[in-house]
Structures are given as structure tokens and as C-alpha cells.
Amino acid sequence: MTILVPTEIEASPLRKRGLNVQVIGMGPVEAALGSYSVLARQKEGPVILAGIGGAYPKSGLQIGDIALASVEFFGDLGICYAAGHQPFPEGLPAKKECSLRHPLMEKALAILEEKGFSPECGPFVTVCCATRDVSRSEVLALKHQNALIENMEGFSVALAAKIFSLPLLEIRAVSNLLAEPESPWAIEEALEKLGEALLCLKEKL
């Protein structure tokens, strides 16, 4: 099992739990390069992308909740206007969606439910800039199938895993609520829950 995390902030408490994790970098570019480099050397699965994320306003998620991605969207890719964002014309070959539905995801959900985590599963959105505006977060979620979680690496890692034909499981714990953009992030609490979930998956997956 290969566990990838974006930053050392996420890696350090997970390592203290005995989990072997590899840091791939924060944001779409570093995550793409970092995950490709790791997977090119190992070329074996399953692969887990683990980290923290922001919950969209109507997701129903709270601090510390666990969520799994069914699909990753690249939310920032398109044409930017002062009043909003639109996708590129259909004729342009701009990929912005990558499905993560596979038996590994279903098995992980069953394991976590059995252990009492009550995980949610649904669309995630990868962005280049963390959203601090409630109206923008609502628009992003609505445009991407009522997305649950905003992050900055998932789409990139999903593409890297696809290149090597490796199943990817993306699991995140909620560290902040996008409906409350000025509230402090509960990083320690989120990573505590994430570590517990990963230990369960390591044992059973």
C-alpha cells in the first residue's frame, strides 16, 4: 500500500502512528510531479491519497468528518471572468474530470462504515487557490455535481495513477468549513481522525 500526502504537516502525525507515507507536494503542479515520481518507481497498488480538505457549504460535513472521492474535478481550469468562471469550449482538449469509482473505493467505504466512521462519498474539486469566498464555494460545488470537498491535489494524483493503471483511493478529513472562511482550520483534529481511518484501512484493505 502506497500512501501519498501533500505536505509534511500531514505526514508527521501520520508517521507517529506507524504509517509509511510519502510527501508529494502541495498544489496541482507539485502533486502531479511528486506523485508521478513515486508511482514510476513503485508501480504497485493500491495507492491512497490522504490529507485534509475544506467542506463545501451544503455538503453536510463537519470538522473531522471523513470523505472519499468518487470523482475529481479540476475546478480552476477554464475561462476566468470578473463575475465568475466558465469551462473552455468543447473543442479544446482540456481534461478536467477523473473518476475514482472502482472496487477499492467500495471496499474502503465498507471497512470504514464497519468501524463506525460514517464516511461520505462523492465528488471532490481540485483548485489552485483555496476558496475564501462563500458564494464562490457554493458555485464550485454546484457546478461539480454538488461536490463535498475542496482540495489542491486530487485531480493531479488521479491522472498520475491512471497513467500507471493503478487504482487510487482518495480520503480526506475535514479541517475547515467553506461556509465559515475566516474560522481557524482544525488541522490537528482532522489529522487525528484521518490517522484513525488510515490505520483501519491498512489493517483491512
From TrEMBL:
A GO cellular component annotation in the UniProt record: cytosol
EC number: 3.2.2.26
Coiled coil regions, renumbered to chain: none
GO terms assigned for molecular function: adenosylhomocysteine nucleosidase activity; methylthioadenosine nucleosidase activity
InterPro entries assigned: FL_hydrolase_MqnB (IPR019963), Nucleoside_phosphorylase_d (IPR000845), Nucleoside_phosphorylase_sf (IPR035994)
Domain annotation Nucleoside phosphorylase: ranges: 21-194
Pfam families per record: PNP_UDP_1
GO BP term (any one): menaquinone biosynthetic process
Name assigned to this protein: Futalosine hydrolase
Source organism per UniProt: Thermodesulfatator autotrophicus
